[in-house]
Amino acid sequence: MPELPEVETVRRSLEPHLVGARIADVDVRERRLRRPIQADIAVRLRRRCVQSIERRGKYLLFALDGPDTMLVHLGMSGALELRATAAACAPHDHVLLHLDGGRTLVFNDPRRFGLLRVAPRAALVELAAVGPDALGEEWPAARLKVLARGRRLSIKNLLMDQRGLGGLGNIYVNEILFRAGIRPRRAAASLRGREFEALAVALRAVLAEAVRLGGSSISDFRDGEGRPGYFQLHLAVYDRAGKPCRNCETAIRRVVVGGRSSFYCPRCQR
DNA sequence: ATATGCACCTGTGTGC
DNA sequence: TGCACACAGGTGCATA
């Protein structure tokens, strides 16, 4: 579920409730995530106060009032949910942070591809693999061109590589390439100047619109307060194989690029 | 160094 | 109804 717009939506929904809140107790019900939950996580989090919530790519960083920062990645199926009480656990509630005042922040993740780790910020090695944020920074055509220079992979795989720019996933790369009129299998280095220009415009437009609409609730995405997003109603190509292009009526095609389903309009995208 | 394929998990939808 | 299979928003590792 979560790419940049969904993670940013979660961040914004939690920020007003969590900044200033203190963690009273920690309940770990399942340690086996992408990396095992640290043995000392409760010691590190207990009595700590959240000072800010930042986002870098698809990672959330909860700065605490001690030496540590809590790093969270939602993987494919993860969710952070603020509950009014320390209510009975739902399936796949893996980590519960009980807050002063009675509310609980729950990390739920059926597939367990997510990550939750607490350490000094400089020790969060996962962040070393994430490039500058796709929305938090300016990405003019020239900067995208630099990323593509000398690379032999497809433009889709280039945009999905978190080391280049952080935050894009399969949904939004498909949507951005549609908006820019570029087929996902095009070699990144083969793009023309005006195509990089179109890509730069599409990148910002699609992400900004998706954030404005609270992300995409394809099956079950919800923000920290349980609210769905609405960008799924605006998807032009993702998961629309065989359906008419919203622009020209041509049937949307599905191909596999880099092992992932990719969707494009054969007429609007070249 | 760069690019690709697959494994890691559970849930859901589809066809037989 | 039950079963087998394909597929799903991501990432990391092994292999060419």
Descriptive labels:
270 residues, alpha+beta, four-stranded antiparallel sheet, 6 helices, 24% helix, elongated, DNA-binding
How do the strands of the widest beta sheet line up side by side? 1-6-7-5
Order of helices and strands: HEHEEEEEEEHHHHEE
**Strand runs, count:** 10
Strand content: 15-25%
**Terminal Cα span:** 28 Å
The secondary structure category is alpha+beta
| Largest sheet, strands/sense/barrel | 4 strands, antiparallel
What Rg do the Cα atoms give? 20 Å
Fraction in helix: 10-25%
Poorly predicted regions: none
Number of discrete helical segments: 6
| Nearest-integer average pLDDT | 97
CA-based shape:
elongated
Structure description:
The chain has 270 residues and is of the alpha+beta class. It is built from six helices and ten strands. It has helices spanning 4-18, 41-45, 141-148, 155-160, 170-180, 193-212; strands at residues 23-28, 50-56, 59-64, 68-73, 79-83, 93-99, 104-108, 115-120, 253-257, 260-264. The strands form three sheets. The protein has a four-stranded antiparallel β-sheet with strand order 1-6-7-5. It has a four-stranded antiparallel β-sheet with strand order 2-3-4-8. It has a two-stranded antiparallel sheet with strand order 9-10. The two termini are 28 Å apart. 42% of the residues are buried. It binds a DNA duplex (16 and 16 nucleotides) through helix 5.
